[in-house]
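Researcher: Let's do a round of design. I'm pasting the structure tokens now; please hold your answer until I've finished.
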């Protein structure tokens, strides 16, 4: 079992360009009781209680496009619809939500729901495609803990 979860929201900045600070502001206004740390220029951390174990960061590196192509190839082989594959292939940026269980002194299942909620916000703002560990789509109609927590 992996000791961390990575949720990627890949998107095309020519369709919608959103900064990490904008994402942070929306999260802060929609979830005022969450603990949010960092200035949000390129990353920030989020938590539910007295610790912020979830890191959210943005990237527009060339390697993001290359990784998106690899993810699209894997997902295409797994039978993901062509429209989603095309959308992934056209991406040039991503937000990554990372939760490392080893660095979290008190991992709780509610953190999976927090990641799920953050992903929904980012997808809504970027019109991006949410991926879990780069090899499967995140479905907002299913239980977050079953999709996000590794088996």
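Researcher: That's everything. Go ahead.
Model: Designed sequence:
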């Amino acid at each position: 079992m992996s000791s961390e979860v990575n949720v990627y929201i890949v998107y095309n900045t020519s369709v919608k360009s959103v900064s990490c600070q904008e994402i942070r502001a929306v999260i802060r206004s929609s979830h005022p009781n969450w603990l949010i740390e960092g200035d949000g220029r390129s990353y920030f951390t989020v938590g539910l209680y007295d610790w912020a174990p979830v890191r959210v960061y943005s990237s527009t590196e060339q390697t993001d496009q290359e990784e998106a192509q690899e993810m699209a190839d894997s997902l295409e082989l797994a039978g993901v619809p062509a429209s989603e594959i095309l959308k992934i292939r056209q991406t040039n940026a991503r937000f990554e939500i990372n939760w490392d269980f080893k660095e979290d002194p008190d991992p709780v299942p509610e953190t999976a729901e927090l990641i799920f909620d953050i992903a929904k916000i980012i997808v809504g703002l970027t019109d991006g495609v949410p991926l879990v560990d780069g090899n499967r789509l995140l479905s907002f109609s299913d239980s977050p803990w079953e999709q996000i927590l590794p088996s």
